[in-house]
Write a structure and sequence with these properties.
9 strands, 138 residues, mainly beta
């Protein structure tokens, strides 16, 4: 479908409008305590000159599924040096272990409806909570 800037639906945007779509699978079935956790995913974009921007693309989720987010990336930052950060906010046990999340699909679509497909550099497609991992275009 069409992408829309959050405050207006006509060009000229102050950057590049993007839509991310991500499909995630929990390593194991979430029990009652797992569903009390807030799982969050953020994307970090970096330019060769050191500029960066970050966007939360999914927050507060506790189930496997597909999530999407529309945002506007500064025009000076290309869509090529990208990292994904996974965090978990735990409410019942601050000393419980890290969690792994499988990243099945990650698509970034621009306002011309052109898509690029990304995956974790790790071949098993899992990201550990509390870490930031490099994404590679496929």
């Amino acid at each position: 479908g069409l992408l829309y800037f959050t405050t207006r639906d006509e060009a000229q945007y102050c950057g590049n409008q993007l839509k991310t779509s991500i499909r995630v699978v929990f390593e194991r079935q979430q029990n009652l305590f797992g569903k009390l956790h807030n799982h969050n995913l953020e994307l970090f974009f970096f330019s060769p000159s050191g500029e960066s921007e970050q966007f939360t693309i999914a927050s507060g989720f506790s189930e496997s599924g597909s999530y999407s987010k529309v945002f506007t990336l500064d025009a000076k930052i290309a869509v090529d040096d990208i990292f994904l950060k996974y965090t978990v906010e735990k409410f019942h046990s601050p000393w419980s272990g890290s969690e792994r999340l499988k990243i099945e699909d990650l698509t970034i679509t621009n306002d011309n409806n052109s898509s690029s497909y990304w995956q974790l550099r790790a071949t098993d497609k899992y990201i550990l909570s509390g870490t930031t991992e490099k994404l590679v275009k496929i």
